[in-house]
Predict the structure.
Amino acid sequence: MQDLMELTKENLLKLGIMNIVAYSRKSRQDKNPEETMIKHKQDLMDFLNPLGIKYKIKEEIGSSEDISSRIVLSEILEKSEEEKIDAICYVNQSRLSRSVGDINRLFKFFKANNVVCLDLDKRIIRTFSGQAVDDDAFMQSVLDEAYIRQAKKVLNQGRRRSAQNGNSLIARMYGYERNSETKKLHIVEDEAEVVRKMYQMCLEGVGTKKIANYINSKGYRSINGNEFTYKQVWSVLINEKYKGWNIWNKESWTKVDGKWTVKKNDVSKWIIVKDSHEAIIDSNTWDKVAEVLREKGKLSPKQRNNLTWASGLFTCAKCDRTLTIFKRKDSLYLRACQKQDLSTGQRVCNVSGGVITDFEVKLINDLKKYKVEIKNELKNMKPPKSRDFKTEIKKMQKDIESIESQMDTLMDLLEKGIYTPKMFSSRYKKHEESIKQLEEQLEKIKEEEIKQISPVGQMKNTIDQIDNVLDNIRNDDESKRNLLWKSIIDTIVWDKEGRNGEVNIEVIFK
Ligand SMILES: [Zn+2]
């Protein structure tokens, strides 16, 4: 439940309002947008000036209905989170949004951040002080006569949720084409082959420049008919779309020194939809390539030349530090643990280094034994019952869609006067509740699906990886061997106390 108060100076002072943001937005529905904006600004100023409270007017021009793409509003929401705003003032609610769901979300957000809403048209202050959330504000918005017609239009337009069901906004990208009916990305097979080749070459340790040269030499061209550059190859290798993912909200626009600039959003803000379309690259391969690129990015060209098969593989048994490797003549050495006491600069770990020149041969034998172990284990395992997640998810999405269409019908009935607001309200709430529950279940199933990679499948995967290492490890290129070892070994724990201590090594496979 929210509290409504009359919009007066006394009440604002009582609430301790010190900072007001007045928000105004040009809407597509305005007959004369510029005139409306000017009038609204005047209205806001007429009300705010006599109050003597600090305020700022923020206007949004030529923006869309979708609140997530409204830059000025997002800025206000950010400021609210930073507690720089006590109140948001608007001429009427439809300036915030005409979408019922968005208004609901906004009010919940304002409640969470102690921001009160000042509605000039209704002359009310909405506070969301502490009491149970009954979405009363939401229902009031829904029942607002003029509002319903607009809300219905928005509901009937393709919803954002449908975009989240995997519909693509991109019409064409290398390897994919959007089907105009299904709105989903479909594979362009001959281009997909080139994409697969790029990933494969990257895993083999070939750099992006050489990959581009190779692809071009085979006569392949980008969508625009040009030769591939190494940057394009790079952008193919880091694009999650190729593993069937769709990601929204990766970046947002912010104003820096008066200029709009793109800022990468924190991963927690991303909307990730896995399996949104057919994958060209399986996610295992995709992740490995990402790992390869990450490792490469960390190293300078000089460091890359100094890579040995053992680089980054060994850690200190006492303090978990990665131990460094150096070459002298034909021998390979592990440097003693360099952990220091930061205040004195003294070495504080007594784990010493040693020669590891011949260790790789032993490692290959260990790996062969490890493979036999896994194979034996695999023999004794029963395959688990497999669950058909895809069908479960599809069914649930269908259920949600059907409830949504029932909600649209409700809107119709209310508009035609067949339903009273009371009947409408109770039914609408029920539907909202069902959708909420379904969406929660859907999330759970998706999580389970991700977790449920069967142990059998996992082990087979491991065996494949071991085979890959064993098949390719006899190779003169140390950096390639290093990558191979890293694909299968998590770390090698090294323990040797003092110069003459006994060497203890534990290989930890991934
Ligand atoms: Zn150490």
User: Anything to note?
Assistant: Residues 385 and 436 are 29 Å apart (CA to CA).
